[in-house]
Hints:
The complex is a heterodimer. By secondary structure, chain A is α+β, with helices and mostly antiparallel strands.
Amino acid sequence: MDLNAEQAGYATSKPLTAQRNREYFRFHGNGAEYFRIWIVNFLLTLLTLGVYSAWAKVRKNRYIYGSTELAGSYFDYLAEPVRILRGRLLAICLLLALFVFQSFMPLLNLGILALLSLFTPWLIVRARMFNMRYTAYRNVRFGFKPAYGEAYETLLLWGLLSVLTLGMAAPYAHFRRNSLLVNNTRFGNLHFRLAGVAGKFYFAYFVGFVMGFLLLVPLVTFVGQQANSPATGADSVTSVSLAILPIFLAIAFYFVAVKFSAALLLRITTNNTTIGGAGDSARRHSLGSDWSLPVMLWIYLSNLVVLILSLGLLTPWAQVRILKYQLDHTWVDLAADIDEVVAVESGPVSSVGEEIGDLFDIDIGL
Amino acid sequence: MDYQWVAYLYDGKSAKRTRVKVKTTVPGYITVEGLSSLARYKLQDVTISERLGAQPARVKLPDGSQLEIADADGFYQSLNAAAGKRDWLHWVESRWSLILMVLLVAAAIGWAAYAYGIPATARFVAYSLPRDIDRSIGEEGLGLLDGSVLRSTELSQSRQQSLRYLFADVTGAVGNDGDYQLEFRRGGTAGPNAFALPSGIVVLTDELVEIAEHDDEIAAVLAHEVGHVRNRHALRSLLQNSVVAGVIVVVTGDASFLSGIVAKIPSLLVSAAYSREFELEADSVARDYLRAKNIPLHRFADIIFRLDEASGRNPAKTSLLSTHPGARERAQYFQ
């Protein structure tokens, strides 16, 4: 980063008045640079039989956070590797115990799954607490309130209700989940807040549903025709493409319908989130984004192709690409000076929740 | 070389930032200018973030405040030049030639782990665990299959009896001291088939008995299944596939935003490759049996070709995803 560009940056950061001031996030990460860090991380993790993975995670997150700029200042990831290693070891012990348990008593499997889902709300809260506690901007940490009761109500009760109503309550449950994650987050003494937009969540689900349906009908018809056509004997090319087709179908369906509505939901969530100004709407900052859904879809699909062709080697490049697009199209409308944000003291948080969530592939984010 | 940089100072109590100048002109010290008073810190009293890409440098001062220096390259260079040291990780990470070497070494290690390390470790662990584990893995398997695919056998009592004698002959020749048990079922959608549960139960479908043209063919298939049990393939593949899944979680953990499907592809490919190796290992047990009993080796090749034909598989083809090698590949060991 050269000095001139930085000074130009300083020049624009004039003292803020009550008047709204739009600041865009900027992602300065670079695919080639991140690839080099990623591959060194990978080798060291291999050589140390996985122990280095905790240090690798810190280096990786420091790169991503530290590449994210808002109004001339950069985000920071503060977790210590040893803390992550401790959580990771505990999570692995748990996984091994489950594995042994499961092989001895396969029938208990279902019981364990049920038990694990009882733990999920706790896990999600703990993971979020960990991630927020060790994220900082301008040397002020983020935080997450340990709202276990709300988490259990939201994730278990509403999760169950959306199953019982055959999915009719699913968009509302999703809205509640995002509210849980947003509303308990704070930056210093500023609290995040997601407005009541459950209706828009229904709209996003509807869009995803319609897209999936429009996509499935012609594809299913096509496969049906192929399957019914008289067998051509030794034509192995046809049989191979027929065998692979359902996989491609599933991928296409997943990406177009699921990712499209996920991107839409994330945009809805971002655009309806405000920060601070609980008693004074004139001092309420608001988040906004204008990423285009077709572009997002294109990035997802082309990333997928690149990842498959490169056997996963271009993962860092793909990740930087999507982050750059999303962050460069996200902004904060500042209603007051950020300088006024006051840091809030909070004790250390263990990484167990985050690491168990990672290992068991529990979706923790928005 | 530069000795002064523009920086932001954050006090750690609020999000306030102050523009300051950081100087490293005095060796062993960092000087901060631009505050009400000039502040100078010994290097050993401050914590400087590790150099990472083009990330801003962060200096944590003893009072909890922090400096953020966006032009980090020059700052780190001047500090390192003064101290005569090098950031090893950053040094490697910023050179493509070294990255290429890292890539090659990682690929070599990955391949060695896949081809030797993981199978050898799984074999060692599997053989040091008590046999009860195999039994509990397989215990409910037959019940599940009976409830779904398999139907009761239609073979006559006398035919069943003669096949049981044949099975006893096979386990006597190539089995170890475990308990073996032969079960007969009508295969239904599973067709002509035979499979072994880790507990030592070998299931033979009526269709396979019908398709066989010689009892030696059935004996060879049974010996293959006993080979799976004896070499503890179920437990070993469970162990190997778990390790592979673990490695993939560590490697693609970064890409969780789209890994769902992508991460499953390599683990599918690897577990299919491992499975094909186990098939060849079980085939070698069948070969041992045929040799020990002076039965012509082609009996085994004959029946696997017929099985491929019955299920419409191409005997010449082994795809990346198939769990069994093609019949032609397997048959070359039985000539």
